[in-house]
Amino acid sequence: MNTSELIEALWVASRETLQMVGIAIVFAIIAGLILGLILYITSTPLLYKNKIINVIAGFFVNVIRSIPFVILLVLLVPVTSMLVGTTIGPKAAAVPLTVASIAFLARLIEGAFAEVDKGVIEASLAMGAGVKDIICDVLLVEALPGIIRAITVTLISIIGFSAMAGTVGGGGIGDLAIRFGYYRYQTDVMFITVILLVVVVQLIQISGEKLANVLTKK
Amino acid sequence: MITLQNVNVTFKHKTSELAAVKDVSLHIAKGEIFGIVGGSGAGKSTLVRTLNGLQKPTSGEVIIDGEDITKLKSSGIREVRKKIGMIFQHFNLISRKTVGKNIEFALKVQNYPKDKRDERVKALLALVGLEDKKDVYPASLSGGQKQRVGIARALAANPKILLCDEATSALDVHTTEEIVDILKDINRKLGITIVFITHQLEVAKELFHKVAVMSDGKIIEINEAYEIFANPKDAVTKNLVKSNVTIPSQIIKDTKGKILTLTYKGEKSIEPVIAYTNKKYNVVLNILHGKIEYIQYKPIGTLVVSIEGSEEQVSEALLYLKANVEEIEVLEDKEREAV
Ligand SMILES: Nc1ncnc2c1ncn2[C@@H]1O[C@H](COP(=O)(O)OP(=O)(O)OP(=O)(O)O)[C@@H](O)[C@H]1O
Ligand SMILES: [Mg+2]
Questions:
Q1: Domain final residue, candidates B225, B241, B257
Q2: What is the pLDDT of residue B310?
Q3: What are the structural domains, with CATH classification, of chain A?
Q4: In this complex, is the C-beta atom of A51 within 8 Å of any C-beta atom belonging to chain B?
Q5: In chain B, what percentage of residues exceed pLDDT 90?
Q6: What residues have CB less than 8 Å from A85, skipping those under 6 apart?
C-alpha cells in the first residue's frame, strides 16, 4: 500500500468510524438521558420514588452492562438485520454500539443527577414546582457539567467498542488496523491508526473536561 | 393563619420506628413571628416541613388559612406551597442560574406572566438591596447576599407565610443581624407571618414574638418571647435560655461566700433591693457581673453577686431576695470546684 492508498483507506475508515460512533452517541444521549432520569427519579423519595420501575430499569441496564460487548454484538445480529436490513457496514455496527452505550451512559447520567444538591430540589418543591419544572430547571441545569463528563467518557468507550464492531463487518479505523496491521503485517498502518486514535481520544477528553469546567458555576 | 391539631410524624425504618413529632397542637396568628427552638434532633425541621406539605404527618391536621392541607392531593398541595415561601440554612440556590434567573424560576413555577417577570425580578432584588447582582452567579455572592436572594425568591409569589429553617445559622453575627432586620422589615411592611427555627438565642431574642420550645418531638413550652426568656417554666427551657454569664474561674476561686445569679425583670431597678439586703440582713453583697437585655423591647436583667455573712443571715437574705427577683440560682460548691 503506497502513501496515497493509505491516506485514501484512512479517510474511508475514519468516515465509517465517525458514522458508527456518531449514530451511537446521538441515540445514546437521547435514550441514556431518559433512562438515567427514570433511574434517578424513581430512586429519589423527594420526587417520584417507585421501587418497581426502578428495579426493572436497573435490571435492564445491568444486564446489558454485564454482557461483554463481543457477545452483545453477536446476540443483537437478528435485531440489527431487522432494523437496518443488513448486518454489515457502519450503520449495522451502530446498533449494538448504541445499545451498549445507552446502558453505559444511563448509569453515568443517573450519577450526575445524584450529585445535584438535594436542598435545591427541596427548595423547588417548596415553591410549588412540579416534577417537570424540577427536571427542566433544576436537574438538567445543575447536572449539565456532570452530563457532559458522562458523555465524554461514553464517547471514548464507544470509539473503543467501534474497533471491535468494525472487525465483524462494521469497517472503520479499528478494522483497518487489524486488516492491514495484523493480518498483513503492515505495522506502519497499525501504528498510524493507533496514533490517530490516541490523538482523537485525547482531544475528546480534553475538550469534554474544558466544557464541563466552563459550565460549572460553583 | 396556621393551626396544628395533634400532629404526629413517625418515620418507619426497617426495624424500628422513630417518632420525630409527637402530638403537636399549636396556633400561629396572622402577622406573627413565631420561633421554634430546641436541641438537635428535637423535630423542629420535621414540624416546619409539615406546614408546606414537604412532610406528610402520620396523623393530625395542618390547617393553613382555614384549609386542612393533609387532605389535599399533590396538585392542591402545590397550590398551597405557592402561597408559602421558604428559606434555608444553606440557601439552596440553583448554582448554574444567575441570581435573576433563580428568582425568575420561582415566578415561572407560579405561571407569572412572562412579559412581567423581568420587572418583578428587579422589584424583588430591590426589596433585598441587591439590584446590581441580577446577572451574577450565586457562587460569587457572600453568604448574606445568597440568603437575600433566597428571601427574594421566597417572596416572589407574594406569600402569606414565610418558613425559615435555620436561615441565619450559616452566617456570621453581623450578617445574621442584617438578615434579621430584613425579615423584621418584611414582617412589618408586608404583614407576612414568619415561622423561624433557630438555635441562635440572639436571633430568638431579637426577632420572635412568640416561641415554642421543642424537645424530643414534643412542644414542652409555648409562650410570648419575653416570658420564655424572663420566666422559663420547664427545665429544658431554663437550660436552653439560661443566660450564660461566664465569670473568670480565677475570680470564682478568689470569691468568698456563695455566688448567686439573679434574674429580674428590668423595669424595676435592682439597686434598692441590693442595698436593702445589705443593710437589713447585715450581709455583704458584691456585684461580680451584670447586664440588661431587651426582648421585644422589654428588659431582662441578670446580676451575678457574691454574698458574705453568717449562715443564718445569708439564708434569711436569700429568702428576701427570692421574693424580690424572678429567679435566683446558687452556684453550688461542687460546681465551684469544677471550674
Ligand atoms: N426523612 C427522614 N427519615 C427518617 N428519619 C428522619 C427523617 N427526617 C428526620 N428524621 C429524624 O427525625 C428526628 C427529628 O429530625 P429533625 O430534622 O426534625 O430535627 P431538628 O430539630 O430539625 O434538628 P436539627 O437542629 O439538628 O436540625 C431526628 O431523629 C431525625 O434523625
Ligand atoms: Mg433541622
A1: B241
A2: 87
A3: 3-217 (1.10.3720.10)
A4: no
A5: 63
A6: none
